[in-house]
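Exercise 7. Given the components listed, write out the predicted structure of the assembled complex. Treat all entries as one system.
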Amino acid sequence: MKKFKLNNLILLILVLGLSLFGLVAIYSASSYSASVNYGDAFFFVKKQAVGLVIGIFAIIFFTLFDYHKFYKLRWWIIGISVLLLVLVFIPGIGKSNYGANRWIGFGGFSIQSSEVAKFGFVIFASCYMSKNYEKMKTFKGMLPVLLSGGLICFLVLLEPNLSVTLCIGCVLLLLLFIGGVKTKYFVIFLCLGLALLPILIIAEPYRLKRLVAFINPWANPLEEGFQLIQSLYSLGAGGFFGVGLFNSRQKYLFLPFSESDFILSIIGEEFGFFGILILCFVYIAIIVQGIKIAFNASDRMGSYLAFGITSIIGVQMLINFAVVTGSIPPTGIPLPFVSAGGSSLVVFLSSVGILLNISNNSKFKFDMRKFAINFKSNKRVKTSIK
Amino acid sequence: MNNLISLQKRLISVFVLITFIFLLLLGRLFFVQVKDSKWLQAKAAEQWFRDLPLNATRGTIEDANGVTLATSYSTYDIYVKPTRIKSPATVALSLSNILGIDYETIFNKACNVKYSEVLIKQQVDADLSKKVISANLEGVVLSENSTRFYPYGDLLTQVLGYTTIDNVGQSGLELYYNNYLKGVNGYALEESDVHGVKIDNTLSSYIPSVPGCNLNLTIDVNIQKLCEDALINLCHDHEPKSATAIVMNPKTGEILAMSSKPSFDLNNVPRDDIQKLMEMSKNLSVVDVYEPGSTFKVLTMAMALEEGVSTESEHFYDPGYRIVDGEKIKCWKLTGHGSQTLTEGLCNSCNSVFVDLSLRLGKERLYDYYKTFGFGNLLNIDFTGESKGILMDIDTAKKVDYARMGFGQAIAVTPIQLITAICSVVNGGNLYRPYFVKSISDTSGNVVAKNQPTLINKTVSSETSERIKTMLEAVISQSYGIETFIPGYRIAGKTGTSQKYEAGAINNKYVSSFVGAFPANDPEYVVLVIADEPSSGHYYGSIVATPYAKTIFEGIIKYKNIEPNGETIEEDTAKLEKNILLPNLVGLSITEACSTLTKLGLLYEIENDGDKVVAQFTPPNTYVYKGAVILLTT
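Answer.
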């Protein structure tokens, strides 16, 4: 039995604090809709609380679970990820919702396959890249990462779920970037990804409608533009300091998905711009901790893994922010740690467990001043790398 | 080792990138939350509050005695809210029991969670609605509506008028007094969710509605019923295109009754056939014009007496026509009335006498009088669509034209204009503005507006008025008017029959009418009955209009409990005793038939120019009273 130790208490506090805040925000956003639709104001809160409890156990488990063991399990992990994504299409196991197959159910519990798969991909890619970091400069060398990421993206796209595909695609690009892929290739991939996006949008009529709605939501305020307009109403009504906790008006069924993908709108309404600013600092702090862990990791695998997890959190949060503020076309993606969604919370908390484990294995302490000096002179900062 | 430096560099640059995008998004957020805040908040507020109109109850309409003629009652529309129903089966069962609607239908509606509200039934009455409310079903909502109700249905149809489904006056008094009747809608502003469900524990502002004012009419529903019944009988007997009756109080101008047929049930407005509806909802008495014919002679007589162009002792000779400006103006009795006094001229309704009187009065004086009587002008009656009538322009009217006007042709008036003018010559010479509404009061009973007798003009002197009354009483107690005679009571009146001009030519369409006043010495009721284009074969006012006016008089006497004059009753009854057996006259020559009737003490009218009698009215072998007029067709 290993002794439970913790090198990065700040991250744990930030993440747990955020999750608890999420619980309150979910209650505020969903109490009315839950009592109207399910007859229980705590319907979503209860589910989220269960997720949080399981998530805390997951943190403990993964903090104690040596991440190096992932290396041996990497094929299993990517295999299970792909399997989960395939299962959503099998009737009886997969659950259809809003015209998409994104969920698989076990009895009363259901999870979103892509939530697991995106972390599965990050683990697999980190394992591969740490072993083959020198090959990463060649196209052939980076191919396993590209193929596994591409396969995951493809399967998620089939569900269909463009937003998660986008998220995984971004993470894939960031991992390739971190893995040392030549700038030439990186630019090509980036361009390919950007070129693919319009095709995917045109392929599905509803995506095109959303795009049009994004460009001018007021043209069709009761149909395509509804969701975005309601989100803007929430944020606008919040103003600088917000209307106060539990005082949202938009939660009275005006804003669909107010407890999940659009919970940021309700937070913005109740706590205002100021409240979101604080929330942003918390997320930035989490990302800073994640990057720090990646920096200080005792080996490449830890570094890649920490970075991959951090980038999932960061990218997903950025996409959510962008959607809610109407900066990109509306697409459904939850806000990490806060949006209602038990499986999402468990998976994110598990990943934080992995981060904490990497942090615990780290033998170094990051020194910003020293780093800055060395950064300029291109000198190495750490000496002992496995 | 360079790899590692590169890794750290790249980590930092990714962090910088994320932070940069983050800052961009925060900038965007600042725009939405701070810069556009006011605007977005205002837009959002539009959907947060539900503005519930509280419809004002429409005012009631009552007759002179306070009997309700039009009122509003509440009905309810019943809806289900599928998303709020836990057990659709229970709801469907209860509702189907109470409302008598198919269980399946309600069940399917209650399960239809696609919609937030589904209508179950409209215009449910208060009793059933109470049952629905007391069943206390979750997810069932009621919305209140006001429905107009006319307790008498098909009575006073054109005068009361009707409203739209939304309670806006569309015709009649409902239209004219709409602004008084409608009241002021209030509203409740309440915080609601996206489906309009009120949010608990929120404040709502509430501005109550102000009910509409109540109209108190001059109409007496009892007299109105007499008119309705009289016209129903008239229509049954003579099948006219339309029929009209008015009862007016000559001392005030109050309209006591006004009826037009055909009509319809106000509770069941035939909205499907707009043209027919427009036709039937037209208040003929006020908006329609007709040639008054002989009833107009009363006015010519009044003018002549007032101006002294003739005396009662003067004798007129009628050969059956007068020639004016080379044109032959026929009297209705083609054989002529021979020599007769002024009063006899009125009793016989001799056109020639009135041609003479008109010519003696002259165009200018006649037109002055017409103006004084209100012809060619609005009476400003409280009703929409009043007609001025048609009075030939004074400059274009030829001698032959105003000669005809003297006996009520070549002039078109509204029935209300005629009765108003007649009222003035029997009430001492005062032309009062006719009106329907006595007073308007709010729900607390405060009178907010009032109509009072308004003297428009002084038409004739009281002496002339007295003489006219005497003459008109003579008309009734003698031959042609005897159909109206009621023993022990004094009635003054005049019949009228005018042939219609259509496209400039006379045709066989007639307007038959009667105007009468009661009691003759000091009239309190003036009655006008008009039948337009009777199709029973009869067209004389004395047959088509007079008997029905008589039933109205009789009804009023009974309703008002007016005692007969004991002194004259015996003599009067004797007058009406039907003790002469009428022989069969068909087949006889005209001269034989006439001498037979004269011997029996009966009068006669001859139709057409033949030599032999082909038909008679009244039929043979019936008893008739002395002096009755027998109609012979040759």
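Discussion: Residues 2-35 of chain B form one domain. The mean pLDDT of chain B is 86.
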